[in-house]
Amino acid sequence: MPTLFADEIRSLMLRSESIQRFMQDSPIFGDVWVAYAALADPQKSKRESESDDERIDLLLYPHRDSSAAALAEEIRKRLAQELIEGSPVPKYRLSLNDTHVAVRLSFAELIRVALPLTKWWQQYVCKFAAIDEGANEDSAEGESESDAESEVSAPTTMERIIALLDNPDVVQRLIQHLENPDAPRHSDSEPYAISYDLIWMIRIVGTIARKVVEKRKTDKHTPTKLIEATRNLLNGAKQSDPLGFHLWSVSLNRQITISTSKSTATIKADAARLLFTPKSNNLCWAVIDSGIDATHIAFRKFDETGVKKLPEFGPKTTKEQPTKKQSAKPKTAVHNSRVVKTFDFTKFRELLEIPIVGTAEASSINPVDERKAKSTQDALMNGQMLLWDQIASSIEVDYLTNGIENSIPKIQHGTHVAGILAADWRPGDKPGPPGGVLQGVCPDITLYDLRVVNERSTGAEFNVLAALQFIRFINSGKDQPVVHGVNISMSIPHDVANYACGRTPICDECDRLVGSGVVVVAAAGNLGYAQFTTDLGLRSDGYRAVSITDPGNAELAITVGATHRSHPHRYGVSYFSSRGPTGDGRAKPDILAPGEKIMAPVPNGDAKALDGTSMAAPHVSGAAALLMARHPELIGRPADIKRILCSTATDLGRTREFQGAGMLDVLRALQSV
Q1: Whole-angstrom Cα distance, residue 89 to residue 104?
Q2: How far apart (Å, rounded) are the C-alpha atoms in residues 628 and 465?
Q3: Residues 463, 345 contacting (CB under 8 angstroms)
């Protein structure tokens, strides 16, 4: 089996002199280098290799001396300088939220546009003595140019590197180091002293550039050819050096995956409701997922006679008739549903997309929303916070304008997850549930539907970050939270070589939200099972330790594994449920809940049984809500709620890395306070 080019880059990336390293120093995370290298892999599908000029979707995190807005503007200006007059503008999809910038860059743009904005480039890669520095110093006293004129004529760091790569003495020194990493190096005080970071960059950038940019397929990557490829990539860059540091790190905009009648009895939620009769109708839970069918009978409110109300669609006004101002173009909602708000964050990036030059291309965003987006962008560029109040109205789902069929989510996952938490579907309803009563853990709670997965079942980390930041916004400035908790039944595999465990963008955002007083419940992931191939080619089934996914790795989130829906003591932890500990040795998962063959509502008035830790997480969300309903003093105290749920869990006799604290026990949790 041939070695893939991406594997070659992994090896080169961690080579320092003749010693194998385990970390790399550049602000471009290892998975980014590997992703660009993968574009040249022969096993890569034709569809992937032809996608949008081989651009990779990236998340840029600003330096502490900058901001997301300032970084986005620097990227915009530098990309505009890269454009060739008369050529079409590539689809960069440059956008931002409160903390990150998202953009699609080619490999050349990554090196020429983004990398020079980093401290690593400015202070380490370019840490070399200037050519003819001594001569420049001798003539400095006789110079008559003004300081401003000197600054204009001064070469940029890019030009200085290119000048070095044109210098025969320097090239020979570079060849020595690329052939023999242990070769002696000039001291920094001598002319042509070269930093190890520059040598490392030439090795990585030159190798990828030859394969991905120059399309070299078979010839050997000699030191001379690596230097030539690096010089060719840098040559012609028009950007001036930035003022200060703007970019701290570059990571992939990672893709997310979306990973109950008997189950409520297993966790004793039904007994807890009968004994304590907690009312959770004043509580609200956000479901960050693929979307909830707000018209489903399982989420309808009851009228005064105990009959389910029919869904109605109309203007958002407390009056029976809308005012003239409202009737001009009213926003409409699904009344009589406990899904009180629906926001589509799959449109967030498009809405805030920043045009590189001129105006943005025609999109599905209407002119009113475009004006709101423009004012939000202007505010960000002026150092203000994201204008969430304007953005919210532009991404809110309008069932009447869009049409009910177009507003109901195409993916079943989010409605199913919400149903485990909040469904109330009884045999007397029309239509009735299949197979008897279908009630979630909190059948009277209200819901926020935050959609981050589109109808093609794809979504990105950037969307989830925006949704989490939005919850912090709507709770800010309120005496009591509007949203009390969040359920995230999706996962992103943790790449141990690129991120400190629990310190990825989504984990950091979850911890911030918990710090603001909101309960965050996350699925542990479904990577507990794996198939292995031995050296002899034999297939073998097995279990994977240290397989918790993000955002389940977040320290402050309640991370939920799965067990059997009705016989947890007999069957223990579900074979697919991700196992701990975390990559940095913390105890996860925190708790177990039923996640096998869980029956719950799905869109268009139906129900279905699904499996996964995605199904386990909303059981714990419901338990947390019942605790707050029974003991309102726990509202805004997520750490206490996590402690109570874990300390009252039922031990299934499995190891801590498998079961966490044990299986959720709602009745015992409510009795313990």
Answers
A1: 12
A2: 26
A3: yes
Q: Which of 409-423, 539-553, 566-580 has the lowest mean pLDDT?
A: 539-553
**Sequence-distant (≥ 6) Cβ neighbours of residue 581 within 8 angstroms:** 545, 546, 548, 587, 588, 657
- C-alpha span between 336 and 296 (Å, rounded): 11
Residue with tokens 């309903």: 629
Q: What is the spatial distance between Cα 571 and Cα 581, in angstroms, rounded to a whole number?
A: 21
Query: What is the C-alpha to C-alpha distance for residues 540 and 533, in angstroms, rounded to an integer?
Result: 6
Q: What are phi and psi of 285, to 5 degrees?
A: -120, 135
Task: Indicate the Cα dihedral angle 163, 164, 166, 169, nearest 10°.
Answer: 140
pTM: 0.87
HSE-up of residue 601 (Cα within 13 Å, Cβ side): 33
Helix, strand and coil percent figures for the chain, each rounded to 5:
40, 15, 45
Quick one: which H or E segment has residue 56?
strand 56-62
Residues in contact with 151: Cβ distance below 8 Å, sequence separation at least 6, in sequence order? none
For 50-59, b/e burial (b = at least 16 CB within 10 A) is eeeebbbbbb
403: pLDDT strictly greater than 80: no
Residues 6+ apart with CB under 8 A from 481: 475, 517, 518, 635, 636
577 within 8 A of 648, measured Cβ to Cβ: no
Task: Phi first, then psi: give them for residue 650, nearest 5 degrees.
Answer: -90, 125
How far apart CA 487 and CA 413 sit, in angstroms, is 13
- Separation of alpha carbons 200 and 466, rounded Å: 35
Please report where in the chains the tokens 């009851």 appear, as a residue.
302
328: exposed, middle or buried (Cβ count in 10 Å: 0-12, 13-18, 19+): exposed
Lowest mean pLDDT among 33-47, 76-90, 485-499: 33-47
Distance CA 297, CA 198 (A): 63
pLDDT tens digits, 120-163:
998 888 876 444 444 344 444 444 444 444 444 567 888 888 88
Give CA torsion, residues 77, 81, 85, 91, to 10 deg: -60
Tell me how far apart the alpha carbons of residues 296 and 408 are, in angstroms, rounded to a whole number.
Answer: 9
Alpha helices in 355-504 (DSSP H): 367-381, 388-395, 399-402, 404-407, 413-422, 461-475
**What does the radius of gyration of the chain's CA atoms come to, in whole angstroms?**
28
Most confident of 236-245, 343-352, 355-364: 343-352
Find tokens 């009978």 and name the residue: 297
Q: What is the DSSP string of 419-443?
A: HHHH-EE-TTSSSPPTTS-EE-SST
- SS3 label, residue 102: strand
Q: Which two tokens stand for residue 644?
A: 């109570």
Out of 50-64, 76-90, 254-268, 569-583, least confident range: 254-268
Over residues 73-82, the pLDDT tens digits come to 999 999 998 8
What pLDDT does residue 264 have? 62
Is the separation of the CB atoms in 533 and 504 below 8 Å?
no
440/598 Cα distance (integer angstroms)? 11
| Token duo for residue 8 | 């070659």
